[in-house]
Amino acid sequence: MKKPGFLKSVLLAAACAFGLSSCGQQESDKDGPDKPVVALVMKSLANEFFKTMADGAEAYQKEHADQFDLIVNGIRNETDLTAQVNLVEQMVSRGVDAIVIAPADSKALAPALKRAIDAGVTVVNIDNQLDEKVLAEAGLQIPFVGPDNREGAKMVGEVVAGQLAKGDKVAIIEGVPTAFNAIQRKLGFEDAMKAAGIEVVSSQSGSWEMAKANTVAAAILSEHPEVKALLCANDSMALGAVQAVKAAGQTGKVLVAGFDNISAVGPLVQSGEIAATADQHGDELAIFGIEAALQILSGGAAENQKTRVDLIVKK
Question: Of the candidates 43, 79, 157, 266, which lies 20 to 30 Å from 50 by C-alpha distance?
Answer without folding.
Answer: 157
